[in-house]
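> tool_call: predict_assembly(chains=two)
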Amino acid sequence: MSYAANFALVLPELVLSLGAIALMMVSAWGGPQSTRGVSIASIFVLAGAIVALAARGAGGGDAFAGLYRADAFADFAKVLIFVAAAVSIVIAPGFFQRTAGDDLRPEYPVLILLSSAGMGLMVSAVDTMTLYVGLELQSLAAYVLASFMRRDTRSAEAGLKYFVLGALASGILLYGISLVYGFSGTTSFNGIADAYRTDGRALGLVFGMVFVLAGIAFKIAAVPFHMWTPDVYEGSPTPVTAFFASAPKVAAMGLFVRVAIEAMGPAADAWRQIVIFSALASIVLGAVAAIGQSNVKRLLAYSSINNVGFALIGLAAGTREGVASVLAYMAIYIVMTLGSFLVVLRMRDEAGQPLEAIGSLSGLSRTQPGLALAMATFMFSLAGIPPLFGFYAKFAVFDAAVRAGLFPLAVIGIVSSVIGAYYYLRIVKTMYFDEPAAGYVKSGDRVEAGLLVIAALIVSPLGYLSIPALSAWTGAAARSLL
Amino acid sequence: MSGFPLLSLMIAIPAIAAMACLLVPAETARRMALGATLLNLLLGIVLWTGFEIGGARWQFVENYALFGRFGWALGIDGFALLLIMLSVFLMPICIGASWRSVTQRVPEYMAAFLVTEMLMIGTFAAQDLFLFYIFFEAGLIPMYLIIGIWGGVNRIYASYKFFLYTLLGSVVMLIAMLYMAAAAGTSSIPALMAYDFPASVQTWLWLAFFASFAVKMPMWPVHTWLPDAHVQAPTAGSVILAGVLLKLGGYGFLRFSLPMFPEASAQLAWLIFALSAVAVIYTSLVALVQADMKKLIAYSSVAHMAIVTIGLFAFNRQGIEGAMIVMLSHGLVSGALFLCVGVIYDRLHTREIARYGGLSSIMPRYAVFFLLFTMASIGLPGTSGFVGEFLSLMGTYQLSTWTALLCTTGIILGAAYALYLYRRIAFGPIKSDEVRGMSDLSTRELWLLAPVAAVVMWMGVYPESFLAPMRGDVAALLERVDRATPPSDSNPTAGRRVAAATHAASGEAHR
């Protein structure tokens, strides 16, 4: 395969990497006043990456002798990742401008671009080495982003915590990869799958699988590797939190699915137990622990743990429908979660300082009915109550689980979703039933408002009209894996 | 009327009106909501007149494959028609009942009611399993808001309890639905009604559906959310809760449990009978000692709904027709009783029975209506309550004499608590000057109660109008469940048919 053909396949990551390097130069010489220009340019770079994806069309294949694969699955995940990354860049200036402390610097969009390039590699990885490189590129950029507000101790703490625990998880993952490599003699997913097929019960392979999955579970924040999530979500600047809750989740979930299906597919019976445990534990813990929270960002952190649990139910099915349902779930999930964070960004007191207490939402339906309606839509949708679109996400994963015959999992999972409904309802209750609090200062940001409206419309019952397109797309993506 | 999407239109009108209501001031929102509900009532009448009795089983069918995995499939049979009529009939009354009593956040209030109406019509008209589920579950959101925003003192607790209780009941049903759609390869309700699931699977599916419908119904012992929700909800909220939302459970049994799982229904009929018998006696006794009017009516609802469930699981024509009539009658009567409570609550702002007394001399017109609805609730001949309860108990007697015996005591107990309530409110000495100052029904209130009273009498005197549309559907249902009908415990032998018949007749005469 010629270099040109290889580079054509990795064009999206190429665009991102070169764009990021070029913009880093601009920001190094341009200084803080280049922030706006660099941000706009990075959005174009992300758009360029999506165009590069679209330009390739339906074709695909392996690049660099089986290190990287371009297929429909990766394409779907990448579109979600790039869109979520672009949204995180768009919403940042408004936040930093109005918040006391550090200003937005041009490094912010550059770091998001680098992280996106890493995420692109993650979902396209068909070799444990690409997997690790992609994961680390994503993570290292993310650690810096978490502590982007240098003078805010919470932000610094978030970055440090994320880094230390992330490094630990990377270590676990590497240990697992080395075990798998040692017992299969290869780093390629196909080769690993062959090893599992011939001798899936070899102790080293089983241990390797457990460590690899544990390392990835850390990245998607599935129980029992979720502890960092609430602290990091709370401490990071809100646009960064929105980013963490969306793009890296999709990337890590895509990676998880690909590793489980392509590399360890023959050992499905073994990893299914792990996934089922993790799914149920995430659903229950995410729901129960959220009840006591009074900070809306921490609450959304537990909500993300809870939602990852539901997505894992689709993976536990291990079928084509299951994979498709995970992708559909993640697509709908990032819209709901980005929408919720867009509302959180608007929670500011008269002085423009961000508020994070749930109590400050009191009576929002009377002070800002539109904002309250949007937030209520996202909350009911995250709880999976029809007719909102979040219901379809749960519908898809449970359908896959039922079709795969996992009845106990489906029943326990859906009954636990009622616990989760409680805390989402609490937000609605605070906004609609309680007496109005001081209220928020009105934001005049048109772009943010536009994004909020788009997210609310997708989540509203109108979203159901997109099901045929969504299932065709996720179905094609799943077929490229199974 | 063929080809015109009348049902979609009936769903669209309240939806559009609800959105419009949010954008206009209070007074316009009231008028808009009333206009939209009256228009829907008019369309409902068109629907009824256009419904061909004895015609195709499913009429006004629409089917668009909009959502990939499931479709926008609508269509009605006789059962659905009658329940849709009940919804569109009660809705303008609900709006009228809140005309002056709701002053806070009127546009949102009207929007919530219109959304509820839309969802109720959708639930009854849905012909796709998942479309049904979406409408069925979505009803929780507006009701949660109605109770939580415009409810009484303890509204937050009641709204949570309502939401979580009913949600927990319903989610397991979703899993059962997913299984059914996967096994049968279709999510169309008419197709599934003809699909035979293996008997062992039926039991599990039946239990999953039972979990949902028993909570909605509500059946003892999962009825505890209802008194809380009723007491805290605003008057119109109680009307719609008792009038239409409680019918979803009965409709579910009729549409899903019986035709889709006939074997399991027969096998588990004892469970229904046992829970219903307990419910009738226990909740009637509980109703007897209530000090709060709304709570009393709420408990009486649980007892009446138990008469519905035994009728449905009697596996014969009288039982099922009776159950349907009880549902319709209860929708009207308990709705009207809540309106009656609302009328005096608006004047004295208390639901405590002890605060009232002697209203018959101060509010004579009110006392007449209240008496009529009380009697209809008891099941006095000439009112709708009698027709339904009589048929339902007669049907039950043919299958289980014991259940019929136990449930008939509910009629006596029902008379006890209803008459006792009426005596305390309407008769006796006038308690206080506050009560003396209460004015009789206003024209608006008269317009709310009179139509309900007229229909209650109509249903009591000439029930044929309501029985005719569902006759064919009952026959189809019976044909479907026939193979599983459990044996009767009265064992009439062939040679002594006459004796058995007189026995049954004398049993009924004790009513």
